[in-house]
Amino acid sequence: xxxxxxxxxxSNSDWFSSILYGRDFVLCHTSALECLGQFPGYVxxxxxxxxATIQEPYENINWNIVKNFDGIEIxxxxxxxxxxxxxxxxxxxxxxxxxxxQSFIQALADYYYSNGESFDGLQxxxxxxxxxxxxxxWAVEFYVYE
Length: 146
Prior knowledge:
The protein is α+β, with helices and mostly antiparallel strands. It has one domain. It contains five helices and five strands, in the order αβαββββααα. It has helices spanning about 10-20, 30-35, 85-95, 100-115, 130-140, and strands spanning about 25, 50, 60-65, 75, 80-85. Strands 1-2-3 form a three-stranded mixed beta sheet. Helix 2 packs antiparallel against helix 3 (about 85-95). The relative contact order is 0.15.
């Protein structure tokens, strides 16, 4: 089975609401960035990223199965549950080899330029500092055209 695609809705929020309705999911990774307004999403998007305690039979959901949501920093954005920005950044650094790198670098760039050209405020876990330091320049240069 497949969930609806983004093209059937007027906004990411509407799309996410229809998918999350009545389900114990938490948006994460790129979907959390979209929910938090840090990434605009893709045209005709059909994949979402969630934390869940059980996996349902949907092919186009990237499942991150957890025993419970303890230890996951969750925020509510317009009625949608998603990981906080700091949680999302750390999760994406942890899972870097399987994430959507484009969305992550663009979100970091947007954060950097909307925060006075600074990453201050992001709380990078010590175990991900090296990885963050290795990619942050890509974010700084994301909107630089030569």
